[in-house]
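Person: Please comment on this record:
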Amino acid sequence: MGHWLQRNIIEPGKLPLLLALAAFILTFLITRVVTRLIRAGKGPFGNVSSGGVHIHHVIPGVALTIVGGFGAVASGRHGLSSAVCAVLFGMGAGLVLDEFALILHLDDVYWTEAGRKSVEVVVLTAALVGLVLAGFAPFGVNEVTQDEEQSRASVLLNVGANFLFALIALSKGKTRIAIFGVIVPLIALFGAVRLARPGSPWAKRFYRRRPRARARATLRAYRHDRRWARPLRGLQDWIGGRPDAAPARLPDRR
């Protein structure tokens, strides 16, 4: 079956990556379903604890990632063992990134507003791996001709220019565009030529004495956030569940 897929569906050598991506997405979706059932008090599932300590699913995720990663390195890119290791790695990565916010904050923020970061990172990771499967290579060096292979200078120039565009986009506060720009060069260029977001390192450095540019950047960021914030939050809630409402703060009477 694996040989048939490699010959007729995907490029040679990409079957492990496809299996890892499928296992990654499926594990994340199943995990979210289970955690939402636990949160609602439905079904046979429950939190796992030992000695009064809540065992988060990032723990088995780390174990699966280690086993799958080292197993993949040892087995190469072909054969049944490679496919099994790819699935184990994808499952482990799905469990780990589902609790990315916990790792970032070193706190159990799974059902809080900060926990949305986990869903965002999972979606971003799946999209990037999907682009690699579709044939895009990091820094845009894909489909290199024989002449370009002989001219290392042109390849290095291509990599350097795209990396520079991605860094500029990142300094302008456009993190998602910068990450996707590593895979698709035109996206990095688009982020590099656009106005920086207020508060970004680029805006602090280059807009400090340019009030008109500062005002335009603030207005554009406001319009962008007003247009896309609610749909993005709705999508995150649909995928990962709605966070708990933040408790109201009492006024400080000191």
